[in-house]
Structure formats: C-alpha cells, structure tokens
Amino acid sequence: MSAPIVLGIETSCDETGVGIVRGTELLANVIASSMDEHARYGGVVPEVAARAHLEALTPTLTEALERADVTLADIDAVAVTSGPGLAGALMVGVGAAKALALSLGKPLYAVNHLVGHVGADVLSEEELELPTVALLVSGGHTSLLLVRDLIDDVELLGETIDDAAGEAFDKVARLLGLGYPGGPAIDRAAADGDPTAIRFPRGLTQPKDLERHRYDFSFSGLKTAVARWVEKRQDAGEDVPVADVAAGFREAVVDVLTQKAIAACTDLGVPRLLLGGGVVANRRLREVAQERADAAGVALRIPPLDLCTDNGAMIAALGAQLAAAGRAPSGLDFAADSTLPVTTVQV
Amino acid sequence: MLLAIDTSAGTSVAVVDRDAGVLAELSTDDTRRHAEVIGPFIAQALEQADVTAQRLSAVAVGTGPGPFTGLRVGLAAARAFAFGAGKPVVHVVSHDAIAATLTAPALVVTDARRRELYWTAYDGLDADGLPIRVDGPGLAKPDELPTGRERHDAATVSAAALGLLAEATWAAGRDFASSEPLYLRSPDVTISAATTGGRRVTQ
Fold first, then answer.
1. Using an 8 Å Cβ cutoff, are A248 and A197 in contact?
2. Interface pTM (ipTM) of the complex?
C-alpha cells in the first residue's frame, strides 16, 4: 500500500495555500497571495487577507488537484492550519477544511502552523535528521525551536518579544520609501550599500539581556533607531544614504538571527539548523547563516523557497506524518487558535 | 434536497427537502464560535437527516448581511463542502430567510455589532411566496433605521428557513442571490501611515 495522500489547507496570514502530498512526496503546492492588496497599506491588513482567502479558496483547491493529477476520490485525509496566525484568516481555512473533510468522508488533522514550517523539510530529498534547531522567520513570526520529534516533541526556545523580523523589514522599507513587501525592497536597496557604514543596535544581545532573553528577539528598537537616524539626517538637510541604511539595517537583523540560532545549536549540542519562513527568501540571511553554520560545524538545511513561505504543502506533510504515525484525527469541534503554542503540534 | 448553512448571526445548519420539509436543523445564537460548531453541526444534520453528501442536489448558504468573521465561516464551509461533494452552491440573502415568514410589510433587523444594525425592508410575499425585498440590505445606527415598516428583530437566521426559501426560489425558476458576501463595511484600515511614510519617532 502506498503512503496516504493528504490535502493541506493553510490560511494563517495572507497566503491561501493548498498542498497535496503522498507521504513525503510533494504532489502540488499552490499558493494564492493577497500581497498586492496589502501593498497600499504597507502591511498585511487582517480583514483584507481574510476576505481574499474566501475568494481564493475554491480556485486554489481546483488548481492543486489539477497540478497533483489526483481526484477528490484519491484524497485520504485533510489537514489544516488551526493556529497560530490571524484569527479571522484562520477561521476561513478551519471552516472550509471541516466541511471538505465531511463531504469527502475523510479524517481531518488540525495542525500547528509553525511546526508545519519544520514539517516542510520532510518533503526534501534528504531525510530530516533530528533533533534539530529551527529558526522560523516571517512577517508574523520569529521563533527559535528545538525539534526532537516532529509530531511529539517541539520546544520553543525563544521568540520575538515585539515585532516579527519580516514586520521590521516592512516598517523600515516604508520609512525609507521603498515599498511593500519590505524584504525584497530592502534587499534591492542594500545591494549597493555598505553594511558596515552604519552600525544599528542588535536587540537583546547585551549580557544583561542575554540572561533573560538568550534566545528571544526584539526588532522594535532597531526600527526606531533606523527612524531616528534617518530623521536626524533629514532635519540637518542632508541626503539619506538609503543603500547604506538598508544594508546596515539588514545586517543588524541577520546578525542577531543567525547569532542566536547558532548559539542555540552550540549550547544544546545540536549540530543541525533548519531555516523556515518567508524571510528566508532574503539572500543575505542565507549567506550569513551558511558562513556561521560552517564555522560552528552545524549542518544547515534550507527547504526550497516555495516551501519556506506559508504554504499548504507543509501542512499536508505534517498531516501525513501524523496519519502515518497512527494518530487519531482531530475531530470536528476544534477552534482556530491565533496563539496556539508550538508545543501543540496537533489539535 | 439541500444542505443549508447560515452564519450571518449565530450558526445554523439544516437539511431540507422540497417535499419532505425540514429533515434536520441545528442552531446556536452564540456569535463567537462559528468555526468550532460548523463541523459538528454539518455532521449531525446529515446524520439526523440520514443522507450522504451525494444525495444532496446543492448547498444553500446565507450571504448576510452579517459581521465579517462569522459570515465567512459559513460561506467557506458551504463552498468547500460543495466542492468536495461536486455539487453547486446557491446563495440566499440571509434577511430573506427571516422575511419568508412575514406577510405584512416589515423591516428585518439584525445585530451588526459596534452599535450598528443591519436592516432590509420587505413588502410581504409575492405570488410564489417569495419575500419582496424593497430596500437594503443596509447598515445603520439604531436611531437612523428607515421608518414606515414594522420592525422585526432577529437574533438568529434559521438555516431551515433559508434552505426552504432556496427550494422555493428554485421551484419558481427565479434567480438566486449573488455570491458576494454582504459585509456592508470596508476593512478597517487607514492608509495614512503607509502613504506618508509613517509618524516621526523624534519630536
């Protein structure tokens, strides 16, 4: 008997994702993004995202089945992100997944979005080795996890205490007039900049902060520091060296992210680091992570980019792991939980 | 036979049949648990009516007016269920389901939260027994509701009533409502910060 075919639905933020996997084999990964609709606001607007999910739902399901070259009758189980994420957005996926599972007469697995990002890696060629440290960085999350077992034992080492890293990119891009989304915009602007020209602060890296927040992050102060620096220049009637500001800001973010992730690997004696989340699309982050991982003897894994950003395939993959392990389905009365803790892999 | 869903106020799910009437209905006026109860309600409605998805001819769903978050749960569930079953979705204005039992002119009113109300004005039923919608749906402050018709407040919208109205609409050969959700409010956003580059941090 071949591995179960699982259809995964992801609607925790601004991407409507439907993915289909057969065990650890990726069959389809279709994403409809409402990013363009958020551009005029300079950030994700929850209600705009939720409305877009409803409209994208059926077209995305249709396309995923076509790409996977399977029919509804082939689907063995449905998986859905039940949290964490934007409540109104999550509820579209949860409502849809329950109804779809019922109409197909198939089991439903409600899973954790963040663990899904780690689960994406089971779809890559090489087998996921555990335990591993995982750094998940997106517009909504900045979390450092210790994964001993994908479906049983995930520990939160630290997370952002204010803005997510991707949010900081959006805010700084906005104050530099670079547009949305901020990550690619900052990357383009930073290409000609000198990352050492301006040294912006590294949040929660001072010895006293490290005592309490060894693996936590903070990007709000960095964003304010950039704003102050820019305003001071403008007030003095001087030009703002946008390339250097962008490069300096990006370097500060990347420095803290990679420093803390590698420190976790070293401290815990876990020589493996997995990256996930949309900010992984940032080339500088991947470069520095690779350099530092190599220097520390840590094996770095980065799933393909379309599996790093929010997607339904990672949710399907995690659902398939749960099904393969013989876990009972989630039932039909679970809620969308915007603050679902990472320790809850399945609801 | 239809599966009918409405989440414009509380959550209501029913199975109705043009000849046999209401085969099952489950409702709650809880306006905070749409995503939780929608699953068990659909499952129980099908079980009580003793029908499978395949025996349905369509899924009927209320398009509101209703507060966004809850309203969307029913629409998402209806579309996904219909997709899975390979059946069509038919849309009904939720207030019409309330008006379907009102023979005299009436103003149907439901809670829109934030101290506002949704309203729709009706002039009884037509020859096919379908409600005659003459104005709305609209959104208004309580003291700014249209006058001239007897006010009819509702805390829930019955999916059974909505389903039977869908059956009657089909039988009369009339058009169903548009699939567009009747949010009647724009997303809460201000674009000032985005367009101006944000507020200064230094004074």
1. yes
2. 0.95
